[in-house]
Amino acid sequence: MIAGLLASVLTCYAIGGLTLSLLWPARALPATRPLLLAAALPLGAGLCAVLMFLWLLIAGPSRGVVVLELILIAGLAYAVLRRSRVQAPDVAAVPMSRPDGTSWLLPIVFAIAAAVAVAGFVAITRQYPHGDWDAWMNWNMRARMILRAGPEWRVAFTPLLPWSHPDYPLLLHSLVVRSWLYAGGETLAAPALVALIMSASTVAVLLTSLRLLRSPSQGWIGGLDGSYHERTPAFAGLAGFAAGLALWTKNEGALFLLALAVAHVLLSLWHRQPALGRSARAFLLGLGPVLCVLAYFKLRLAPPNDLISGLALDRTLSRVAAPDRYAAIGRALKGHIAGFGGNGLISAVWLLVAYLAGTWVSDETRKAGWLRTASLALLIVVAGHASVYLTMSDELPRHLNNSLERLLLQLWPATLFVLFTALRTPEEASEASRG
Fold first, then answer.
1. CA distance 319 to 330
2. Strand partners, 20
3. Which long-range contacts (CB under 8 A, 24 or more apart) does 364-373 make?
4. What SS3 class is residue 165?
5. pLDDT of residue 274
6. How far apart are CA 183 and CA 41, in angstroms?
7. Of 330, 351, 359, 411, which is most buried by a Cβ count within 10 Å?
8. What are the Cα distances from residue 416, in Å, to 61, 387, 412, 413?
9. What is the pLDDT of residues 190-243, one digit of tens each?
10. pLDDT in tens, 132-144
């Protein structure tokens, strides 16, 4: 089983890496290779999750998907080889801030923090081998239903189990089923490995992107808690596909995509710029395939969402008109944000506030349009979550207590990326203080 699980990971990595190598601008490749290597595994996992669902539609949960993925790898490798022969990369310089004398400490601190995080992950996995509530009542349970039902795998989306969210998109379920097919049977190591890969990949992408866009020190700090200005539709298309994978992961992905679209349109109107420019069209092109897969799932397989199906105009208006609900949501947001990531120690939010006070916003990134769009989108997502609690929740205190921290955690990597991209690097702050 271990060999099969390892093969499933390597196959994901190969598919993601070859796809990125094929789409990545050739002249950007040498300078941005660390980011490509970090993004290869999560992108490959997303592609394999979509491919797994399509294979389910064709042949059910069978090991034929392994053969299909190997054929895909061979085709991608051939395409990358042909591209490398006709288009030699032109090395592009990436301006970086000069590291100061203490920058060697940051990788050590990061390595210690990473080791502690992995040890914590292993300890929690051993204590809760089936995962917490959401893991076993939704992701893993539905993955087992799909695998065990064989040709009748569609029964996994029965409306008779509304508490298990049978309408949730299938990225994680598909990855678990796929891992079991590679391993040759069910093993608790498969969903744990998926969770570890997703967590580690998030940190790796955050670290490498900040190192590329800002400085090595900023990357290490962002991973703990000079820009390259290559403008190409390929990056926008990849961003669109990544946004589609957010849709294919959870229902909250729809709110994220809506927030991104609203922020882009509002800022385009504010600056009197076209909202559907070249990059936006490429973004939609990348989004399209996953959007079609999601639409098929929602329209043909998934039962109605339990929150939305329970909506009624009179009940919704009574919730909106209740002042105590606003107060409860406000208190919960304030408490969860102020104490986020505390783990019995100081909150990670206050550490970021202290870092903000010591560095402040970089003049280089202050006026970046994409940074404003991302910042506004994050605020819209938080407002959207608050609106859902306000209008849809019958058991508001329980829902706030059980889900708000998880929703904030989903926004945490993007928040770190936006913050550390906008702030001065330690080197810039040091130079400013000396000047």
1. 15
2. none
3. 364/227, 365/214, 365/227, 365/421, 365/422, 366/422, 368/421, 368/422, 369/267, 369/271, 371/418, 371/421, 371/422, 372/263, 372/267, 373/260, 373/263, 373/264, 373/267
4. coil
5. 82
6. 19
7. 359
8. 38, 24, 6, 5
9. 999 999 999 999 999 999 988 887 777 666 666 656 334 445 678 889 999 999
10. 888 888 999 999 9
| Residues 246 and 205 grouped into a single domain | no
Return the SS3 of 346: coil
Does the pLDDT at position 94 exceed 50?
no
| Distance in angstroms (rounded) separating the CA atoms of residues 171 and 56 | 13
Q: Tokens standing for 56?
A: 């389910």
pLDDT-derived band of residue 103, with 50, 70 and 90 as boundaries? low
Same domain, 124 and 153: yes
Cβ–Cβ < 8 Å for 223, 110: yes
Instruction: Name which of 290, 267, 237, 322 is nearest 20 in CA terms.
Output: 237
Residues 328 and 434 in one domain: yes
Nearest to 316 by CA among 227, 236, 392: 392
Give the Cα-Cα-Cα angle 258, 46, 19 (nearest 5 degrees): 110
Distance separating alpha carbons of residues 200 and 118, to the nearest angstrom: 9
Number of domains in the chain: 3
**355 and 260 in a common domain:** no
- Mean pLDDT score of the chain, rounded to an integer? 87
Helix (H) or strand (E) holding 27: none
Question: CA angle, corner 232, sides to 229 and 234, nearest 5?
Answer: 125
Owner of token pair 């969770």: 195
In a domain, 303, yes or no: no
Between 431 and 117, the higher pLDDT residue: 117
Q: Tell me how far apart the alpha carbons of residues 8 and 212 are, in angstroms, rounded to a whole number.
A: 29
**Structural domain containing residue 407:** 310-435
- Write the CB contacts of 137 (distance below 8 Å, at least 6 apart in sequence): 163, 164
Tell me how far apart the terminal alpha carbons of the chain are, to the nearest angstrom.
60
3-class DSSP string for 55-100 = HHHHHCCCCHHHHHHHHHHHHHHHHHHHHHHHCCCCCCCCCCCCCC
DSSP per residue, 390-429: HHH-SSHHHHHHHHHHHHHHHHHHHHHHHHHHHBPPHHHH
pLDDT in tens, 25-67: 777 777 788 999 999 999 999 999 999 999 999 999 999 999 9
Last residue of a domain, one of 199, 214, 230: 230
In the prediction, which pLDDT does 96 show? 47
**3-class SS at 375?**
helix
**pLDDT tens, residue by residue, 323-367:** 999 999 999 999 999 998 876 678 888 888 888 888 888 776 777
